[in-house]
Amino acid sequence: MKPTGLLIGVVLLAVLGAGVWYSNKKEAAAGDKKGTDTAAKILTIPDDQFQEIQIKKLTGESETLVRENGKWKLTQPTALSADQDAVAAMVTSLGALNADRVVEDNAQDLKQYGLADPTLDVKVKRKDGKTDEVLIGDDLPTGSGAYAMKPGDPKVYAIASFTKSGLDKRPDDLRDKKLLTFDQDKLTRVDLAAKGQPVEFGKDAQNEWQIVKPRPARADSSAVNGLVDKLRDAKMDLTSTKDAAKGFATGTKVGVATLTDASGTQTLEIRKDKDKIYYAKSSAVDGYYVVAADLGDVLDKGFDDFRNKKVFDFGFSDPSKVEVKGAVYTKSGDKWTANGKTMDNGSVQNLIDKLRDLAATKFVEKGGGEPVFDATVTSNNGKRVEKVTIRKQGAQYFAQRDTEPSIYELDAKAVDDLQQAAADVKEGAPAAPAAPAKK
């Protein structure tokens, strides 16, 4: 080979080599340089070792979360109760933080990854005194993740986008947004001042809700529990731009709920403005807040809204004895009997179903007329005995339980169906004769 040709070849090879070097450099800077394809662990922290989480941001903002007695609280920038579920998600992410891949094994230029001045600096202080730290930088050019590394480790990793977004939280994202902190299992009394007279609910000996004021009455447990559930889950809407303090001050009162548990009493007042935006003030949390409209709706109720409209309480508890119009049906095992005769189970069950479904169309102050139907149902292993008398006045039917003054106005067709079910109860079919023994 001629010297000139050799020289040209060397030059071309050098140019090609420089091009390859530059290309690799550019790909690394763009996040496309191939590192280790397999996933790698960045942090491994047992859940019970988490004591404190510090998050510092490039913007200068920072949050500190501290675990005390098993509960997380926000200590910086403001001392607040923390949203336990939100912090639990963060603990899960940091406890087993894995990389999608290793971008560079020995990174020298961290600036190209946004790690010289990281977007997020997350530190975890353990109960054993150790500290774990991860830095998170720029997003990948593809937008599918972000760069991350541990201080002192030259490796640069690619992590999932949701991992970065799960750690990049504002104080409002991390604070507890619940307006009340009562213990539902230890709740003993609920007072509601909304429509009409204030209503007070208390627990009976069976731990069931009953109406105590304005006068004793059976409560619709599902309605009271629905109210309690809504109050337990009541949260402030921190995304609203409305001036909640002004809105509350000028709003119309919807209702005030007062709840008492073993630790004391908490109060929540709801108001709404002319645009039907609802505002709340709680004794458990400082400030005024916009809340969901359905919270206002559940408080905007009165005495009759919480009364039990069912005439009988036995529900789906199987009765053991039913007395109707002088007839007495007793259950033994899986059979119903009357006067020593076995009754048709289906017809007795139909009568029980009609008694179970009997409900008031409304409550009235007076209800007269002649008695047309008496029924006594024994259930709950003989512990519950309910006697009801139904009267007819004109075309109207009224029911009254033996143990309370409330008068239930009934649907006429429901009473007709009940009387027909009572008339349809019949004896069971005789048992088939035993087959003769084979000789």
Cα-atom radius of gyration:
36 Å
Strand order of the largest sheet: 5-4-3-2-8-9-10-11-7
CATH architecture of the largest domain: Sandwich
| Average pLDDT number | 89
Q: What structural class do the secondary elements suggest?
A: alpha+beta
Number of domains: 3
Query: Quick one: biggest sheet?
Result: 9 strands, antiparallel
The count of strands amounts to 28
Helix content: 10-25%
CATH topology of the largest domain: Immunoglobulin-like
CATH level 1 name of the largest domain: Mainly Beta
Shape: elongated
DSSP helix count?
Answer: 9
Spell out the key features of this protein:
Immunoglobulin-like; 439 residues; nine-stranded antiparallel sheet; 9 helices; alpha+beta; 3 domains; single chain
Walk me through what this model shows.
Residues 6-34 have low confidence and may be disordered. With 439 residues, this protein is an alpha+beta fold. Helix 8 runs antiparallel to helix 9 (412-423). The radius of gyration is 36 Å and the shape is elongated. It has helices spanning 3-30, 84-95, 161-167, 171-174, 221-232, 244-250, 293-299, 345-357, 412-423, and strands at 40-44, 50-57, 62-68, 71-76, 80-81, 96-99, 101-104, 120-126, 131-139, 145-149, 156-160, 189-193, 199-203, 209-213, 217-218, 252-261, 264-272, 278-282, 288-291, 321-324, 327-332, 335-338, 341-342, 360-364, 370-379, 384-393, 396-401, 407-410. The chain folds into three domains: 32-174, Sandwich (Immunoglobulin-like); 184-306, no CATH class; 321-423, Immunoglobulin-like (Sandwich). The longest helix is centred in the N-terminal third of the chain and has 28 residues, at 3-30. Strand 12 and strand 13 (199-203) form a beta hairpin. 26% of the residues are buried. It is 23% helix and 36% strand. It starts with a helix and ends in a 16-residue tail after the last helix. The strands form four sheets. The protein has a nine-stranded antiparallel sheet.
